[in-house]
Amino acid sequence: MRTRNHVAAIGFLLIALPFALECSSQVTPQPGQVTTMLAPHPVTERLHAIVTAGTLAELRWPNFSDYRQDTQLLYEAVHYVPVWVHDGQPSAQALAIIADLGSSQQRGLNPEDYDAPRWQQRLSGLKGGGGNPDTLAHFDAALTVCAMRYISDLRGGRVNPTHAEFSVIIENQKYNLPQFLLAKVVAVNDVQGVLRALEPQYTGFKRTETALQTYLSLASQDHSVPLPATKKSLVRGQHYAGIEQLTRRLRSLGDIPQSAVVNTTAGVYNGALVEAVKHFQIRHGLHGDGTLGQETLRQLNRSLNDRVLQLQDSLERWRWLPTNYPQLPVVVNIPEFVLRTFVSDHKIAMRMDVVVGKELAQTPVFAKEMKYIIFRPYWNVPHSITVAEIIPALRKNRRYLAAKNFEITDQAGHVVTGGVVNSSTLAKLSSGKLLVRQKPGPKGSLGLVKFIFPNDENVYLHSTPAPQLFTHARRDFSHGCIRVEKPVELAAWLLRDQPKWTLQTIAAAMNSGSDNQQVNLTSPVPVVIVYMTAIVEENGEIYFFDDIYGYDRAMNETLAKGEPYR
Question: Are 65 and 55 in contact (CB under 8 A)?
Answer without folding.
Answer: yes
